[in-house]
Design goal:
Radius of gyration: 28 Å
Number of strands: 43
Number of helices: 2
Strand content: 25-35%
Keywords: Signal
Structural class: mainly beta
InterPro entries: DUF285 (IPR005046), DUF5776 (IPR044081), Liste_lipo_26 (IPR011889), LRR_dom_sf (IPR032675)
Shape: globular
Protein name: BspA family leucine-rich repeat surface protein
Pfam family, one: DUF5776
């Protein structure tokens, strides 16, 4: 290939619109992955390119010389000081080589990583080996945000020599990677403030050693272990006294069976500082051993899993049992609780370990005296069998707090079916997992137990502007997938979370508008009342507001008020970002922007998950954390 042809290819690579993925929890759409923090890139950091043959390309990254062999996908990086991600040879927009062609990276000499190492090796979807990382000096690095983010084929790196003593940001560090085992026992995390989404969507990660983690300064553990394959987590050494959000921390961890959070201090869960354990989400499905401490507080929105009657041949009473105290001394005949009762009743007064209570097969029964055998009777001729009748559903008056007329919403990806025995061929509609404010709602018209003993809700879709509005059918009643949309209990305070805000009214029927409250406003609650099959909160002034969980959330929640962009952003007319306001309307990198509201894309499309958007003056911009940093909360 000629030099002219190669340089044309380089130009083409620079113009590619990169990666579009929907992330599980956050639903972020990745168009580019800039560094998270603003760092001035000087001329010495600029990647310098020269083509030496058809297959070999060379250049410099910072002060390190690099060589790329296109025939093998191998990038060799020599000694020196690396530049930031935007000057990397494989950068999405400024790179000299196609990031998709990089399969192996060899660090051949001692290299020093930049202070801002955010996204340094991000998005190398075909990278299978990163060799020589033990030669990397990371002692000066403060920002590890997204270091290996979306390296979806990378399953191991030698991290044994990493010096993280100055690190403050480890958010997204291993997210969307293929790591199977991570030994981070030598990590110094004493200065880290964000572990947000650190291990998000790591479907191969079965074990992680965090025994040395010092979390005394960590403020965010949002989605930290979301959708991993971790089987057991011992977090007893975690200091959570400064953590302000744990939203979705264990969400989707379907392999997690043992969890020790006995060191967690969640005592501020209902105060103004609001440690958001309300959305811990422990409903991965297999959690069967939970150790808690004296300062751990639970609540009903944490969604402990429903315990099966039988699993892997073992039968359970479908209750949790208190089996060990905080010192691991056995408790004889400890109290038992349903998942709902444990979430409601645990207040730290009985710290220790709670497990699924087994049905003891070895309990002896009193033998009965044998009966005297009778003479056998002459068999009669068999009768001709009749055709079996199709088993019918059994109608239920209620299931938990749900009864006919109740409104429920979808927590995870669910389907609407034609019949109560679910078959893929009988699916009527698909409802993707969405953010809380956009979850699909259904009115329950009946509750049935099918021939297999499974409880189903017979529902009508009441998502009025959706493409599925008005459809009827069956959905699962599994508490991991559907739940009442209205609060059932009172709370001291709630935060308005609906994008367009809510109104207060003179009457519990929500008639006679009094006042409008914007998204992010915190309201003090006096009481809760019922109205038909819904609930309303009474404010201190005696007016009524909705208790719909899509519109309000218990406690004090935080919303972005001002952001600082870390990349150039276009402004759009709608939250789907389909039509730009103007080709000239651009938010420059480093600009401070006031946020008017939080929205999500695909609001009226039930089959597609939504991604975060910010409403600003004049339009909508991406809410991807890789493009902006929140610098002020409201």
């Amino acid at each position: 290939m000629s030099l002219v042809s190669r340089l044309k290819l380089v130009k083409t690579y620079k113009q590619i619109a990169i990666i579009s993925v929907s992330t599980i929890a956050l639903g972020a759409t990745l168009s580019t992955i800039p560094a998270k923090a603003d760092v001035n890139t000087n001329a010495a950091q600029t990647s310098k390119l020269k083509a030496t043959s058809d297959n070999i390309t060379t250049g410099t990254w910072g002060t390190s010389a690099w060589t790329f062999d296109d025939s093998t996908g191998t990038l060799d990086i020599g000694p020196g000081t690396l530049g930031t991600r935007d000057s990397a040879p494989f950068d999405f927009t400024n790179g000299d080589i196609d990031y998709n062609s990089v399969k192996t990276i060899n660090i051949t000499g001692s290299v020093t990583l930049p202070q801002d190492s955010s996204g340094l090796f991000t998005g190398l979807g075909n990278l299978t080996a990163l060799n020589g990382f033990d030669k990397a000096d990371t002692s000066n690095v403060t920002n590890f945000h997204g270091l290996f983010y979306y390296d979806s084929k990378l399953d191991s790196v030698d991290l044994s020599h990493m010096n993280t003593s100055n690190a403050t940001d480890m958010s997204y560090m291993f997210a969307f990677s293929l790591f199977r085992n991570l030994d981070l026992s030598k990590f110094n995390t004493s200065k880290v403030t964000s572990m947000d989404s650190m291990f998000l969507h790591t479907p191969n990660l079965v074990s992680v050693n965090l025994s040395s983690f010092d979390t005394a300064n960590v403020e965010s553990m949002l989605h930290m272990f979301n959708s991993s394959a971790i089987k057991s987590l011992n977090l007893k050494n975690f200091n959570t006294s400064k953590v302000t959000t744990m939203d979705g921390m264990f969400q989707g961890d379907s392999s997690l069976t043992n969890l020790d959070i006995s060191g967690f201090d969640t005592s501020q869960a209902t105060t103004d500082s609001m440690l958001d354990t309300a959305s811990f989400d422990l409903s991965g499905g297999s959690l069967s051993s939970l150790k808690m401490g004296p300062k751990t507080k639970l609540n009903a929105d944490m969604r402990l899993p429903d315990i099966p009657y039988i699993l892997d041949g073992i039968k359970y009473t479908q209750n949790w049992q208190y089996v060990k105290n905080s010192s691991d001394a056995p408790i004889s005949n400890g109290n038992t609780y349903t998942s709902q009762a444990l979430m409601a009743d645990y207040d730290g007064s009985n710290p220790g370990t709670y497990v699924w209570e087994k049905i003891n097969k070895d309990d002896p029964t009193t033998p009965t005296n044998p009966t005297t055998p009778t003479n056998p009777t002459t068999p009669t001729n068999p009768t001709t069998p009749t055709d079996p009748t199709t088993p019918k559903d059994t109608e239920l008056d209620h299931y938990g707090s749900v009864s006919k007329g109740s409104v429920v919403y979808g927590l995870n990806h669910i389907y609407l079916y034609k019949s109560s025995v679910f078959k893929t061929t009988d699916r009527v509609a698909s409802y993707s997992k969405k953010s809380r404010i956009a979850r699909p709602m259904f009115t329950v018209t009946s509750i049935v137990k099918n021939s297999n003993g499974k409880v189903r809700y017979v529902v009508k879709d009441v998502n009025h502007n959706s493409n599925t509005a008005g459809q009827t059918g069956y959905i699962t009643a599994n508490a991991n997938y559907s739940a009442p949309v209205y609060y059932q209990g009172n709370h001291d305070k709630v935060t308005v979370i609906g994008s367009t805000g809510i109104n207060s009214y003179n009457d519990k029927s929500l008639s006679g508008k009094v006042k409008h409250y914007r998204q992010g406003q915190v309201l003090s609650i006096k009481d809760i009342v019922t109205h038909n099959k819904t609930t309303r909160f009474i404010l201190k002034d005696g007016t009524y507001i909705t208790a719909n969980k899509k519109l309000v959330k218990m406690g004090k929640q935080k919303f972005a008020k001002t952001i600082k962009t870390t990349a150039k952003l276009n402004v759009y007319k709608d939250s789907n970002l389909t039509t730009r306001v103007s080709s000239k309307r651009v938010i420059k990198k480093g600009d401070k922007v006031s946020v008017k509201g939080l929205y999500y894309s695909n609001e009226n499309n039930s089959s597609k998950s939504g991604t975060k958007r910010y409403l600003i003056d004049g339009g909508y911009i991406s809410g991807n954390k890789l493009y902006s940093k929140v610098i002020r909360l409201k």
